[in-house]
Amino acid sequence: MNYLYITLINLIIVFIVYVILNNKINKNSTSTLLERYARDVESLIIELNRAIEEVLNLSEERTEELKKVIKRAEKILKKPEIKTLIDDGDNNRPIAEATKRESAQSSAEKMNLLEKTRHLFAMGHTNAEIAEMLNINRAEVDFLQSLHRK
Fold first, then answer.
1. Closest C-alpha among 64, 134, 72 to residue 101
2. Which of 51, 116, 126, 131 could pair with 138 in a Cys bridge, judged by C-beta atoms 3.0 to 4.6 Å apart?
3. CA-CA distances (angstroms) from residue 14 to 5, 6, 21, 126, 128?
4. 117 C-beta neighbours (distance < 10 Å), count
5. E-state strands within the chain
6. With contact defined as beta carbons under 8 Å apart, do 4 and 11 qualify?
7. What are residue 92's phi and psi, to 5 degrees?
8. What is the pLDDT of residues 49-75, one digit of tens each?
9. Which pTM was predicted?
């Protein structure tokens, strides 16, 4: 009877060792490793697709903005007084036109600053670093950030 118990215990121990070793071998098998690598590659592809989608959305937004700017420029160029200035090559523009251009340029620069601050903030820079990079006050950076949040 004792012999039977000892044999039974040995069989149970051998079975447990077999199951443990089989699991370890299966974890390191080629098919398991390939499956794990395939999951990792799939997650990288998904992450890459998200990043590309963000870039495409941003480029589409900027393309739309550029189209609007081009339409405004075409409207301005169609005005007869602008055509005559361009055709004549007259450099003696009235002061009002010069100030209009300067204000348009400054608004374009502000929009450009807004985009730059938004981009730098998204990259993880602090407001102080952004102010230093763009050569503007930190208060201006804070203001541009508040515009971006709206």
1. 72
2. 131
3. 14, 12, 10, 63, 67
4. 25
5. none
6. no
7. -90, 70
8. 999 999 999 999 999 999 998 988 888
9. 0.35
